[in-house]
C-alpha cells in the first residue's frame, strides 16, 4: 500500500511516500528554521503562510523523486494533531483535497504516534509491544506501546518538555534557535561536574518528571554570572545541563521498563538526537538486557515519513476520516484516532 504522507504541525513542511508502513520511497522536507531564527522561536502565523507557499510544490517534488504517479497513491495520511493550529490546518486541508481528488482514503495521524513510528522505518524487525520514551520540543512522556494503534501513557513531564528546556537554555547562552543541537555539540567539548544543577523529585507517579526547576536553575546561574561579571565555562555548563536532563529521563524510563516487563525500548522525538541521552540509554539498556531502538538523526526530528509509517497501521486498524476531519492544537494520543 502506497501512502502519500503530509506533516505541517510546526516549522517543517514535509511530504513523503511510504510503502506498507516500512519502506520510504522519498521524504521531502522544507525547513523554516532560518525564517524563524531572528525571532528566537516559531512565529505561528509565519509558519502557516510558509506551509501554504510550499506544500504543493513539495508534493510534486516527492512524486517526481519517487518516480510515482498520482494514480499509484493508495491513501493520504496527515498529521491532524497536536501542533500549531494554523500550521496543522494547512496540511489537513491539503490532504483532504488530495484524498478527494484521488478518490483514496484519508488517514489522520497523531504527531506523537508518528514520532514513535519513526522506529518502524529505522528498524524493520521492531514490532509492539515495547516501551517508548518520546522526547521532543513539545512532549516528554513514557508510553507502553501495546499495539501499533493502542498505547498507554505511563508518565511524563508535569511542566516543560525536555526539548523546550534545551532550547531555552541554549537561547540564553546566545545559541541560534532551535538550540538543542548546538547545546549538545558544545556539551561534547565540556567536562562534567563543575556546576551543580537540580534533579526534581516529585510525589505521586514515580514515572512523572519536571524540568522547569532545572531550567530556572540554569537560567539563574547564567544571569547571576552575567550580573557579577563572572566568566562561565559554557561547555562545562552544557555538559552538566545535558547530564541533568539525562539523569531525569533514563532512570524513570528504565523503571517503566521493569514495571511493564517489556524487553524492547524505543526512543523517539527530536531530543532523541542528543548524544548524551543516546549514550546513557545505550549503557542502561545493555545493563538491563533490553534491546534499544533509537532512530537515526534524520528520523528523530519532524518528517512526513514517520506519518506515512503510522498512517499505514492506522489504516489497517480502520482509522480513516471523512472530509469533515478537523485539526487539533492538543489531543491525547491514547484512545480513538479522531
Ligand atoms: O520532535 P521535534 O523535531 O519537534 C517537536 O515535535 O517538538 O523536536 C525538536 C526538539 C527541539 O527542542 C530541538 O532543540 C531538540 O528537539 N533537539 C535536541 C537535539 N536535536 C534536536 N535537543 C538536544 N540535543 C540534540 N542533539
Ligand atoms: Zn515533532
Compact overview of the structure:
Helix content is 45%, strand content 19%. With 338 residues, the protein is an alpha/beta fold. α4 (111-122) packs across α11.
Gyration radius, in Å: 20 Å
**DSSP strand content:** 15-25%
What is the β-strand count? 10
Number of helices: 11
- Distinct ligands, ions and cofactors found in the model: 5'-O-[(R)-(carboxyoxy)(hydroxy)phosphoryl]adenosine, zinc ion
Helical content class: 40-55%
- Largest sheet, spatial ordering of strands: 3-2-1-4-5
Distance between the termini: 22 Å
Please trace the helix and strand order, writing H or E for each element. EEEHHEHEHEEEHHHHEHEHH
| Structural class estimated from helices and strands | alpha/beta
Gross geometry: globular
Description:
The protein has helices spanning 33-37, 44-66, 85-102, 111-122, 162-172, 180-187, 212-228, 234-260, 275-288, 297-300, 305-316, and strands at 2-7, 12-19, 23-31, 75-81, 106-110, 130-135, 140-147, 150-156, 264-268, 291-293. By secondary structure, the chain is of the alpha/beta class. The strands form 2 sheets. Strands 3-2-1-4-5 form a 5-stranded mixed beta sheet, with helices on both faces. Strands 8-7-6-9-10 form a 5-stranded mixed beta sheet, sandwiched between helices. The longest helix is centred in the C-terminal third of the chain and has 27 residues, at 234-260. It is globular, with a radius of gyration of 20 Å. It binds 5'-O-[(R)-(carboxyoxy)(hydroxy)phosphoryl]adenosine (KG4) and zinc ion (ZN).
